[in-house]
Amino acid sequence: MVSSAVMQRLSASDLEGALRFVAEASAETGSDPFPGPVLEHLRRLVGADWAAYCELDRRRRRGIVIVESPEFDVDVVEDERTFWRIVEHHPLCQAQRRGRFDALKLSDFHTRRELHRLEVYADWFRPYGIEYELEVGIPSPLDHTKTFLFDNERRDFTERDRALLNLLQPHLIQLYKAAAVRRLADTARAVVEDGGEERGVVVLAKTGAIEMASPLARRLLDAYFPRGRGARLPRVIGNWLRQQPMDRPPNPLSVDGPRGALTIELDRRGGTRVLLLEEFAAGGQGPAALSAREREVLALVRDGLRNAEIAEALWVSPATVRKHLENIYEKLDVHTRTAAVARVHGPG
């Protein structure tokens, strides 16, 4: 809820501008929450020379996402090296580390004369012509911070600018969440269309943590990595991911287990990393050769479900169910549903 003091600092035109920004940003249909045009609209609304949206992993000291408006012409490698060297001395970064995500200005912490005496000014602000900075964040843990930065060369930001960003902050949070939902939906749809419905699917967040996992993927991860923890990838998979080349197709990972082998493939879809998991049981024929998904299908057949009902229960198409049954019949050397169930589960 926005306080009356904040509202008093904003004019009718400010409020209209904020509404137009929210409407424009909400109309975005892509997986990026704050693409260049949206950030440029926000920069003009605030009245800044330069704006950026950054997602950082401050524990591992690496960048995840950066969008700039306008773009800076800098040496990216040297720029990152300098940033991570001065980040602990940056007043606004330190405030965010202490849990302050509301709009804050450099001048909240230092006068201009005091700022000019600091190493962070000499190494970071002065080379880019920055004298004044305003930040607002999306509340986040240190391993995935999300921050908007606004910089000026000649004028400090006003209380109006601060009030405007504090007014917009809840909307920025919702815009980020909406984009995350779109990204998951788009990725899941693409995987299903490419036949991924037959395998376990894991969608990775930008940090490398598990953002979404299908029920089959969860069961396979639990079976092959019993010490797994929630959203964290097993160490074996994490190490394998870090070794995958960016300039050629990734190599699959195979993990042996008591039931057979788990094969994991990496699929990069529009910047989103997706893991596709498939189990291959020991032995080429008989009940032991059935995959985890084929066992699921057969268990539902045993329960008396028809193909359309199995498809609905597993969130796959009826054609996929038919294909699974064909594979089951071939592996079990049978020709009917009843014979397949009897071969695996015994006579009914």
Characterization of this structure:
The strands form two sheets. This protein has a five-stranded antiparallel β-sheet with strand order 2-1-5-4-3, covered by helices on one side. A five-stranded antiparallel β-sheet has the order 7-6-10-9-8, sandwiched between helices. It has helices at 4-8, 12-26, 36-46, 76-86, 91-97, 112-116, 119-125, 159-193, 215-224, 235-242, 292-302, 307-314, 318-332, 337-345; strands spanning 50-57, 62-69, 104-105, 132-138, 145-152, 200-204, 210-213, 253-257, 260-269, 272-281. The protein is an alpha+beta fold and 348 residues long. The radius of gyration is 26 Å and the shape is elongated. The termini are far apart. The longest helix has 35 residues, at 159-193. It has three domains: 4-183, Beta-Lactamase, CATH 3.30.450; 194-282, Beta-Lactamase; 283-348, Arc Repressor Mutant, subunit A. It contains 14 helices and ten strands.
